[in-house]
Amino acid sequence: QIGEAEPLVQLAKSGSKPARIAAIIALRRMKHEGLKDFLQDKDEYIVAEAARAIHDDLSVPAALPALADLTNRAGLINPVVLRRAISANLRLGENAHLQNLVSYTLKKDAPKEMRAEALAALATWAKPSMTDRVDGRYRGEVKRESKPVVDALEPIIEKLLADKDPEVQIAAGKLVSKFKLGKTNNTLMALLGDSKSAGVRGQMLKVLSAIESPNMDKALELGLADKDSDVRSVALELVPQSNVADGTAAELLKSIMSVGTLQEKQSALLSLGQMKSPMTSALLLKVFEDFSAGKLEPELHLDVLDAMKSNGAETHLAKLTSYETEINKQGEFAAFNVVLNGGKVANGRSLFYNHKAAQCVRCHAIWEYGGDAGPSLTGLGSRMSKEDILESLLNPSAKIASGYGVVALEMNDGETVAGFYMGEDDTVIRIKEGKSEIKEIPKSDFKKRTDVPSSMPAVGSILTKGELRDLVAFLSDIKLEG
């Protein structure tokens, strides 16, 4: 309140950890660049708190350069600090910060996840997201030339592709796709054929397609023959972009729909939706007929509907419209039942933590990580069915979690009682007025109840059905052990 920052900055030299923490809190409120002095602390907890103070929310711009330079510090492994240091370099955007990130990607002693994060940040260098990579706060539009990052990556991309860590190799592959880097075709083909990591082999297949490799037919052959179903699924999704003859492609996809894994069948349906030949279109209609007759696995229902829409042929769209008309008669959300099966947990996890529009993690925590504006989702899959989870996403106000909704009661004597909804049973409703204790009010004592709608948006209007399917799969997988 006095407003004198210097005595607080001097506490960076204090031997008292509580004093240093208190100084960081005060300087954060003052938005003072003296916070950068605390980045040199030997205690990583102090460094992390200083990094949060400098980077998060409205930030302290004058201290961001010091935070960005932490990528050069040897032995630093704290992800809280490193994510913010990487983000600071991306936000500042000068050539020195570009070099910071490029150098960090080559640090063998750095955590592999953070090296991959630095590579992912470089992929967005020319046009970073308008929301922050770390805390999701709106940062505004930034546009830069891509040539500096391409020039910086060209000399090292082969070294990154040859890295021992699969996460780094995958992130490097994405950079090749993004910027069409170097003459990497032979290296990519070698990784597709020889890497022990299915994730790397699948990513290299995608990269070879993205750079329009002259060896794409051979790459597709290797992918379709891969021992891992994930890699085969990637290859199947790339069939429409290949030179495979229509008849051969139709027979391949027909075989997959008969004997493939669920994941391969999902990929085959994705390809069928993109291919327009008479043979593949006829195969898609046959699969849709099996769906209509109840003969198709539930995990494929959304995929066949999406494929019919993507195909776009008049006959296909007519059958799809007829189906949608009938399903909509069954209820407001009946058309969403197709998202209950077939989702990918990993994709749903990424969506929960990273989707810029949904912003799930800003309001909900899982195992203490995330926001507290909404109820914790820890153990959600142990206490709610997939159907209940889907309902809560589509109609958040249908069932309000205890402590997170407001209810107003018009009593029989005309008075109004309002407070936080804390639960109910057949005979009483429990509410909490302000800081008072929870009251149990008999349902016979009031004549009207008004529930204030949840502040959570209906996710069905934000996510595609495919994204919603993955999110349901992830949320239903969050279960308590034992």
Explained architecture:
- The chain has 482 residues and is an alpha+beta fold.
- The chain has 24 helices and seven strands.
- The chain has helices at 6-10, 17-30, 44-55, 64-68, 79-92, 95-105, 112-123, 147-153, 157-161, 166-179, 185-194, 198-210, 216-224, 229-238, 246-259, 262-274, 278-292, 301-311, 314-328, 345-354, 360-363, 380-383, 386-394, 465-476, and strands at residues 365-366, 369-370, 406-411, 416-424, 428-432, 438-442, 446-451.
- Strands 6-5-4-3-7 form a five-stranded antiparallel beta sheet, with no helix packed on it. Strands 1-2 form a two-stranded antiparallel sheet.
- It is flat, with a radius of gyration of 27 Å.
Features:
482 residues; 5-stranded antiparallel sheet; 24 helices; alpha+beta; two-stranded antiparallel ribbon; 7 strands
Beta-strand share of residues: 5-15%
Radius of gyration: 27 Å
Trace the largest sheet across and list its strands. Answer: 6-5-4-3-7
Shape, per Cα inertia axes: flat
The share of residues in helices is 40-55%
| Largest sheet composition | 5 strands, antiparallel
Termini separation: 51 Å
The total of helices stands at 24
Number of strands: 7
Mean pLDDT: 90
The residue ranges in which pLDDT falls below 50 over 5 or more consecutive positions are none
Structural class of the helices, strands and pairings? Answer: alpha+beta
